[in-house]
Specification:
Layout (H helix, E strand, L loop, with lengths): L1 H22 L18 H22 L10
Keywords: Membrane, Signal, Transmembrane, Transmembrane helix
């Protein structure tokens, strides 16, 4: 009985949530963008380079890990 009640409550919540979210606050509007994107700044490029170096290093470690020797003699 309690299990069925929990299932019904979850289904009702999933059904009502999108309708409630759609009805919430229509006065909220997006503001126009002022200024340029931050993608041209040096910080974004530095972060991208660091991520790429990390991905290359991780790939190297995963591909060169040949620890397949048996442990017991």
């Amino acid at each position: 009985m309690l299990r069925n009640l929990a299932m019904i409550t979850a289904a009702a919540t999933l059904t009502v949530a999108p309708v409630a979210a759609q009805a919430a606050s229509p006065a909220r509007a997006s503001a126009p963008a002022a200024g340029e994107s931050d993608l041209r700044s040096g910080d974004a490029w530095r972060a991208l380079i660091i991520v790429l170096i990390g991905a290359i290093g991780m790939g190297f470690l995963l591909l060169t890990d040949n620890d397949d020797a048996p442990v017991s003699p």
